[in-house]
Amino acid sequence: MNAVIFGSSGGIGRALTENLIQSGAYSRVFAVSRSGDGIEGATALTADFLDETALEAVAQAIGEKGPVALCIVASGILSDGDTLQPEKSYRHQSRAAFETVFAVNTIAPALIAKHMLPLMPKKERSVFAALSARVGSISDNRLGGWHAYRASKAALNLLIRNYAIEQARRAPGSICAGLHPGTVDTGLSRPFQSGVPDGKLFTPQQSAAYLLGVIDRLTPEDSGKCFDWNGQEVPA
Ligand SMILES: NC(=O)c1ccc[n+]([C@@H]2O[C@H](COP(=O)([O-])OP(=O)(O)OC[C@H]3O[C@@H](n4cnc5c(N)ncnc54)[C@H](OP(=O)(O)O)[C@@H]3O)[C@@H](O)[C@H]2O)c1
């Protein structure tokens, strides 16, 4: 069976792809990104995840090579080094920021699910996972701020639960889960790492190894939930 990583050009996405190739656990590893840049040992495919025609073409190419046992959405956005910045107050909210952040963090994973869930086997175990974030937890939100990012991840978590319910009806071995990767040293977190305690900043390779361990241990009873890098459930 095959594995697919969407967002293989990102810090965590690349580390996940490399780890999966090294594991040898899958017949093929597809690496999907906007640039289509190759990773040795992976089959590179190109798509902007907001372009449904491109996603359809990618799904067709993947489907022709057999069923998908693992699909991980590792794309996402927090800031753009320019006008898009996580909001400290409701006064800083803007329509443009909400539209960009929801498009990448919520709508893109939804479109990927639309085209990838049908490729996952009906009977055997399969995992559809999307990188979410602990800050998307509504009940665990004690700090506030980061309005668009938090809301986009909370909405993503809700969609994952919806897909779990729907998949359980058609594919009893299917697991849909959100994953919090920890605070990881990537382009996404770099501008916001100053408050991270010593030893709490993971390399992408560390985080990828933890996340793949968590994925391996998930069962259909876990479907619809969000888990952190340590396998602990992140409350909704
Ligand atoms: N790093 C952390 O500490 C941390 C903590 C909690 C959650 N997360 C989550 O983990 C995930 C991965 O983050 P990361 O740290 O690895 O970030 P990253 O290095 O910035 O990677 C982000 C990835 O998203 C891709 N992407 C963005 N918009 C896209 C689009 N429209 N179409 C296709 N690809 C698109 C980027 O592609 P390009 O290369 O083409 O730009 C890149 O591959 C995100 O969902 C993030 O929210 C990260």
What percentage of amino acids are in beta strands?
Answer: 15-25%
Proportion of residues in helical segments: 25-40%
Q: What would the principal axes of the Cα set say about the shape?
A: globular
Total beta strand runs: 10
Low-confidence stretches: none
Q: Whole-number average pLDDT? A: 97
Structural class, from secondary structure content? alpha/beta
Rounded to an integer, what's the Rg over CA atoms?
17 Å
Which secondary structure elements does this structure contain, and how are they paired or packed?
Layout: E1 2-6, H1 11-23, E2 28-33, E3 43-46, H2 52-63, E4 68-73, H3 95-116, E5 126-131, H4 147-170, E6 174-180, E7 183-184, E8 201-202, H5 204-217, E9 226-228, E10 233-234
Parallel strand pairs: 1-2, 1-4, 2-3, 4-5, 5-6, 6-9, 7-8
Antiparallel strand pairs: 9-10
Helix pairs in contact: 1-5, 2-3, 3-4
The structure holds NADP nicotinamide-adenine-dinucleotide phosphate.
Give a structural overview:
With about 240 residues, the chain is an alpha/beta fold. It has five helices and ten strands. The protein has helices at about 10-25, 50-65, 95-115, 145-170, 205-215; strands spanning about 1-5, 30-35, 45, 70-75, 125-130, 175-180, 185, 200, 225-230, 235. The longest helix is centred in the C-terminal third of the chain and has 24 residues, at about 145-170. The two termini are about 30 Å apart. The mean pLDDT is about 95. The site of NADP nicotinamide-adenine-dinucleotide phosphate has 28 residues, from α1, α3 and β7.
Summarize this structure briefly.
The protein is an alpha/beta fold and 236 residues long. The protein is built from five helices and ten strands; from the N terminus they run βαββαβαβαβββαββ.
